[in-house]
Amino acid sequence: MLRFIVRRLLGAIPVLLGLSVILFLFLRLLPGGGPAEAILGQHATPELVAQISHTQGFDQPLYVQYFDYIGRLLQGDFGSSFIDGRSVVDSFLVRFPGTVELTIGALIFAVGIGIPLGRLAARHPNSWLDGIVTVISLFGISIPVFVLGYTMAFVFSVQLHWLPDVGQLDPRLDIPAVTHFSVVDAILAGDWHVVDALSHLVLPSIALGSIPLAVITRITRASVIDVSNEDYVRTARAKGLTDRRVNSRHIMRNAWLPVTTVIGLQTGQLLAGAVLTETVFTWNGVGSWVVTSIQNHDYVVVQSLILIFAVIFLTVNLIVDVGYAFLNPRIRYS
Questions:
Q1: Contact call for residues 333 and 38 (beta carbons, < 8 A)
Q2: What is the pLDDT of residues 34-53, one digit of tens each?
């Protein structure tokens, strides 16, 4: 197992190096005459262009710029925003908890509903129940996130006034940001603030979790049906084992592997930035930060965030692969 983990970590190095080259060239090949002109946009003047080119090292040879860029990355320096001058790492640590919180909410919704729906459809294949579950999954995977988000906001917030549709907390509560996790900060603040935090989390979690819900439902259904047709399952039933024991010990234990894979992939994608969901619901996370940075031509922030997202995605995939051995002891990595 240790050799497998080390091999995967070593295999991630060329991936990250290749991505760093692409991101490095991305900033230098932007249209507009050069990276300084692209960053400054309509505010570019010869004096500002010269100043930015000198401070950022754009006037150096490309190979010098690249090695300087890699050296700063290895030291944990991902650059600073041109808008507010704050370090990318500092701003990321403030915003990332919001994205993690939204991802957890979306996964709880997707996994908590998707797996039972998939198992229900698999136990009644080609029935009307299976048809309903298939329609639900097709609806979830087809409708755009921003359409679902705006629709739910209009119905449940504007029309029914059941749930808030903007932000993470009611600003009138004046809850101090201790951990930057709105639910945790609300719990620390006491009273009934946690109810407000959870109510703000409902709509964006459902909108973000709609596509993972559909994917998990379909994968669970297909995996359970496939395992149910195996010889060892028929043998277990022939021995007189109860349906509950057959389902838990023989079917689901082996059906978990593809389901775990898709959950891990969906987690990596969600953590990489729920751009549309955070924009629709004005959520203070990494996704909305990406949109703002692109609009403001803050390309250094965009460049750094893409690299951070890649590291997160690779880490989540590694955790999923390692979890295989614990879910199914027959799997051994050599």
A1: no
A2: 677 777 777 677 777 788 77
- 294: closest CA among 91, 70, 66, 82? 82
Distance CA 4, CA 7 (A): 5
Long-range CB contacts (< 8 A, 24+ apart) of 76-80? 78/304, 78/307, 78/308, 79/300, 79/301, 79/303, 79/304, 80/300
- Measured CA to CA, the distance from residue 214 to residue 231 in angstroms comes to 29
Q: How far is CA 84 from CA 55, 81, 150, 236, 272, in A?
A: 16, 6, 30, 64, 23
* Banded pLDDT at 2 (limits 50, 70, 90): confident
Q: Hey, what CATH class is 92-282 in?
A: mainly alpha
Residue that the structure tokens 């692409």 belong to: 22
Domain spans in the chain, listed from the N-terminal domain onward = 92-282
- In angstroms, rounded to a whole number, what is the distance separating the alpha carbons of residues 234 and 223? 16
pTM of the full structure: 0.85
> What digits encode the pLDDT tens for the residues 203-217?
999 999 999 999 999
Nearest CA among 260, 278, 258, 261 for reference residue 270? 278
CB atoms inside a 10 Å sphere around CB 294: 13
Average pLDDT over residues 231-248: 80
pLDDT at 328 over 90: no
> Structure tokens of 187?
């719990």
